[in-house]
Amino acid sequence: MKTIAVIGTGRMGTGLAHLLSKGPEAVLWATRDPHQVVERKLPWVNKVTLCAYKDALQADIIIPALWYSDLMEWIPEMSDALAGKILIDITNPFNTAFDDLLLDCSTSAAEEIQRALPRTFVVGCFKNTFWSVLESSTTQEPVSDVFVTSNDPQPKAQLLQLFQGLPFRFLDAGPLRNNRTIERMTVLARELGIRYGYYPRISYRLWV
Predict the structure, then answer these.
(1) Nearest CA to 88 among 112, 107, 65, 72?
(2) What is the pTM of this model?
(3) What is the C-alpha to C-alpha distance for residues 142 and 145, in angstroms, rounded to an integer?
(4) How far, in Å, CA of 83 to CA of 139, rounded?
(5) What is the pLDDT of residues 29-77, one digit of tens each?
(6) Where do the domains of the chain lie, and which CATH numbers do they carry?
(7) Cα separation of 96 and 67, whole Å?
(8) Distance between CA atoms of 17 and 92, rounded to whole angstroms?
(9) What is the dihedral of CA 174, 104, 97, 183, to 10 degrees?
């Protein structure tokens, strides 16, 4: 059994902890204030183990549910602890208006994280799926697609297998450079969702 740690208790962190609590793996949910999480009285929280950020680094698979800029500040001091681990990058490097990205088209958040962590297996995943869909995911067809990317085929295949039972269709989306497109697809999806009144109930389904 693998141990998965979700770091952060914001909307995406909460949605991912809830989603992963439905699976067979042990789930750590890292927070700066466990009492605050307990006070939220989430009905599923007893299915995960609350812990501190430093304790989450003991997990096999680590999902930082942090803003891109905060994550890039946190990474340097954690590079040794993350060596040999799988880090799932869910970030989209939004600007403050959420209508564009901080990075130009020649790179992506996933690629920048991999450059900063050369000894870590970075896998891009859940970038195109908003928190509302994570919190109310359904097994009814058509389920949403989640794009999974990595420069290392083994950890990507491992996650595709590990997440099979979750209520999404996980697609091998190739190497990390494809996040240049995926991250921009997320910006477009947000704009369209707001325009047509579906935000934040947004995800992709490429074919049925």
Answers:
(1) 65
(2) 0.96
(3) 9
(4) 35
(5) 999 998 889 899 999 999 999 999 999 999 999 999 999 999 999 999 9
(6) 3-196 (3.40.50.720)
(7) 11
(8) 19
(9) 0
